[in-house]
Amino acid sequence: xxxxxxxxxGKPVTVxxxxxxxxxxxxxxxxxxxxxxxxxxxxxxxxxxxxINGRAFNPCSVRVGDLKPKDRVTTxxxxxxxxxxxxxxxxWIDRDVAQCGYCQPGQIMAAVALVRKVRxxxxxxxxxxxxxxxxxxxxxxxxxxxxxxLQGARDM
Amino acid sequence: MTELHDHQSxxxxxxxxxxxxIGYVLAGTTLVVGADLAxxxxxxxxxxxxxxQLPELYDLEDLQTDSALPTSQLITVTxxxxxxxxxxxxxxxxxxxxxxxxxxxxxxxxxxPMSKVKVTLAPARPELVFNQLTGGSNTTFSTYTPVRVAGxxxxxxxxxxxxxxxxxxxxxxxxxxxxxxxxxxxxxTYGDIAGDAASQVVEAVEVVxxxxxxxxxIGTPKNRxxxxxxxxxxxDFTTDLDVPGALPTMVCRAPEHQGTPKENGLKNxxxxxxxxxxxxxxxxxxGIAVRAKTFGHCIDAIREMQVDWNPGTxxxxxxxTVLAGIKRAELxxxxxxxxxxxxxxxxxxxxxxxxxxxxxxxxxIADVREDGAEIWAGxxxxxxxxENIAIxxxxxxxxxxxxxxxxxxxxxxxxxxxxxxxxxxxxxxMGVPVKLMWHRADEPRQGRLHPMATSRVRxxxxxxxxxxxDQVLSFEQRHTSVVTxxxxxxxxxxxxxxxxxxTEVGRYLGGLTFSQSIFTLTQELPYDFGVVTQLLNETDQxxxxxxxxxxxxxxxxxxxxxxxxxxxxxxxxDPLEFRLKFLKNDRVxxxxxxVRKEGNWGRSLPAGVAQGVAxxxxxxxxxxxxxxxxxxxxTVNRDLGPExxxxxxxxxxxxxxxxxxxxxxxGVEAQMQGxxxxxIALTLTSSCHLKNxxxxxxxxxxxxxxxxxxxxxxxxxxxxxxxxxTPGGVGEAAxxxxxxxxxxxxxxxxxxxxxxxxxxxxxxxxxKPKSFVPPVPPSPTNGxxxxx
Lengths: 156, 788
Prior knowledge:
The structure holds two protein chains of two kinds.
Chain A (H helix, E strand, L loop, with lengths): L1 E7 L2 E7 L5 H8 L19 E3 L2 E3 L14 E3 L12 H8 L9 H17 L6 H5 L10 H14 L1
Helix pairs in contact in A: 2-5, 3-5
Chain B lengths: L1 E3 L15 E7 L5 E5 L23 H8 L6 E6 L5 E5 L8 H13 L6 E5 L17 H28 L7 E3 L2 E3 L5 E3 H8 L5 E6 L18 H6 L14 E7 L7 E6 L2 H5 L4 E7 L2 E6 L2 H10 L2 E3 L9 H11 L13 E9 L2 E2 L7 E6 L4 E5 L4 H12 L6 E5 L13 H13 L3 E4 L4 H5 L2 E2 L2 E10 L8 E12 L7 H11 L2 H7 L4 H9 L8 E9 L13 H18 L4 H8 L3 H13 L10 E10 L2 E10 L2 H4 L12 E10 L6 H20 L5 E2 L2 E2 L18 E6 L15 H16 L5 E2 L31
């Protein structure tokens, strides 16, 4: 059993667990951080999408031993600034996106990363960018997700 | 974009003509009021004119509502000391928004802000018998009046208590935001007067409901009450719950559909028990269960298990062999007695297996002890799960507590308690609490399926008939399907209910099987097509099936509406005009007219791009869908990487719905949008492939539900004016009609009539099937290389 240390939602955490356990299970089953959801465990459904050092990643597909002590992992629980929601979360509420809500933490984290990515590329988000999002919503809230991302991007 | 017309009819003058209802004040220290769930259900009692199909008079909504009549007990609303009202809804929230809409209904009658109305999900209540089933888009339709009665009665009793306190009469008091006031300036809150309003005895009281013209909450757009929790990660689903000792648990399942382990099937038990994190291993009826420190440890253990398996229930079978069996069971079409000049159109369609799995996989927590058990799960028929678990464990029903947890989607998948039953079996075998979760790979391979089916239609049309007008003389549809499992509980009550139905209806249903009854109660072709018959025949019970969202309707509607397009073509009439000409229901005509206008029907489009239109009448309402589809090679052949199915793209959808009285237009719009995505998937992309008794699909990149690259850039929802003063059902209303409209558009765009659905089912398999032994894939380790 190894000591695993990384920064989770702004605070350093240490967990005793083998290197090869995927980060999703460390978050959910050992640390009780349940915002990132399980939908497939093979980096397909994207329901667990979170951020590592500000970029989107899927904790179901990263061994906890591959995290470095300075790596900053942000889950949906760490996206808001205290009580003040992130503009993307606010957009999700304004558009009343969620139905069952299971995929939405991952959708929001993916949306924030996508907006940051296109900004790094010096452009704003397009319909074509929205088409590349792989996160599944089995309730079919895609139309409102698209509207919310455009609003969230304007406010970010 | 939603457009909402003023949909409420004017109230009758004064209170005259307003129906009063009976509610109950219950004994207690604070005010508790109740209403019978059967309150306000309108039975079909009118004389039945010749010719109509059964659903026009009495449909599945009525059956579900009437099923409760003799048995239902009270639902209750409590006014708490803090001025809030609480209510436990005997239904399940799976994303459809019923907690929000029920809160709105109560807030309306109580005259309380929505923030002071606390609606939660009731645990399994066996005394409700069959009045705790969430399905058939029935929740709002069946609970609207009883919930209002309880709310109105609570307000009435609070006013009466306040009148005594102020020395006045109740009719001189007003309520605002949970405060009762008189003209003299006296005020008292609901919370402060609730104790005075309480009764020591049970009392039946007559109550009159608020007229629709006074509605201030019902009919206005409201956001979902759990929206903030959902976007901050605080909304809890079953696997998020922290039940002491309930460690992660998964099951190693057979390679074949419904295969089982041989006796002492696990060959390397000792080695598995020694694996990191593993606490317990037990053989159960469906496989080998493992409980461990994390779900990751469970996956690792399953991948190492060496198990001897029995064959499954469809060993050696494949799509084509199952289909051949269905064809052998097809009922013959009657050769209609029509004039020699009449022309006949015959069509035949095939519908492949679909998975009804939600994104949240089957999950349940079970803590089984010697003398009792407690279960936590998303369940749409919790009473049945409770009873089955009690039987399995040999416990009395009241020793099994079943907590209903908000589900991460259902689409019919949670009608069955498969997950709760399995969790209880494992907890009993291991002697510890367990948190069971199915792996994604388990869902399409071992989970509930929409059955494979064929639908054949023979219709006859006479161009320029006796009157010079085109006439459709007959329309026969024969639907033949792998058996749909309805054993989730409505079955038992059907016989009893059918016996008590108005004679004509009861006679109509007499002798039908349960599936045939559901089919008959849901299918209605609202056209004047002469002799109309739609019949179901079922065969082949070897598959684990269930009611997927909209049950038979998507397949039946695709077949019927495609055939109607062929009839229109035969007589040289525009498909939309043809429908308008033969529709016999004004509500359906109105929604069709609406999409014609808003969708700019008939506009000029390039070759390979076409419009399609379809209607559907069910759930006490009507839906029309107009779509545009792009089948040009530049769209169809979009290459977005591996395991990414593109194909034709629906570029625009216009929905018009008349769903009766609207509680929450924003919720109605959401259900239409979601239903559209389901309909697109059913026609274009989503199916399960059976090969040698095994389903190939094991991932969301294998089972192609609609993804962002398939989503129409434009989706418009129009809620049209209605003269109905009761709510219909919206959860499924857009699924079948969208599936049909997309099929019609595809046929028009390509000039070919597709035969098999989804249309891509026979394309080369777009993925490499995951291994069957082991039955779950390993989690990748390259996630840090894929960040963005």
